[in-house]
Predict the 3D structure of the following.
Amino acid sequence: MMNNATVNIKLGLFNVENLFLLFDRPIPPNYQNLTEDEWQKLSTSIYDNKPLKKCLSIASIILKNEPDIMMVCEVGGLESLKNFNSLFLDSKYSCVLLEGNSNRNIDVGFLIKKDLPYFFDVISNKNRPLHFLYPHEILSQQHGFKIKAPSQLFSRDCLELRLFLNNREKPFMILLLTHLKSRLDPERIDPGGVERRSAELRTVVSIYKELEYQYPEIPVLVCGDLNGYAGKQNPDLEFLPIYQQTDLQDIFEVAGVSTDKRSTFYQIKNGNKAEGKQIDYCFIPKKIWPHLASDCSVYLYTDHLGLPLNPPTTMDLKSQLPSDHYPLFFTLENLPV
């Protein structure tokens, strides 16, 4: 929504957990009432389609909260995002996604409302070098053996969305959306994925600082699934550059949201205990802290009566949720354009 030289923008961030929607058979008119077995039979892809019930739940959350821009992680390509938009969101959004580097074919992207009074450009950083090699690659290089590339790249991407009114050379806001290396280490070359994630984070900060230098008056936001604790109090070491080199702060820190209400992911512990963690973040620069509205929050999943569900205490309960992450929403008010 725009008023004179300012704009209000509601944003959301959601890791939608393996949102694959690929079809090679006709989709019947009653598709929302299909059984899960019937739904899966519409595709012969090697990737299972996102369960129908979960797609309906995710769409319901987006439609209920009505973000102007929904930032999404773990989407199985542009085709999946377009299918989700047309089948479950009444095609209310423009789908923006550039294929990244994921070996799981999960990308980051945006859903942008079609009736907004501004335009957008999107830029990929997937080929940006991290200036990082694993120790075994460095050793191979030192002994004259050929390695795959002179530098590792992002696990997925750091996708850049530039918003502008009439002149694409003069954006009024830039969003950086990323999905950093997970803690999985199947090759046992980087315990917890820490070294790779650190390199990716440093590169995101470098991109941020370059944009800040190029557009000193323009707010640049850094958002995404960071796969670690990046909060202001005792962050994991790989996230220290955020606080050492920028004035970025997590929206919940700026808004004063209590730490027990920031969890976007629950780890199931022995003894049927759920440990809540925040691993999904939206960092905003100091220049727009005053524009952050009081509505920023993590969205809690609800039961059939619309009442908030307690955090899952078993893997079975967790697997029934629309995603293994919880979405968050926030609004920037009276943002100068």
Observations:
- The radius of gyration is 20 Å.
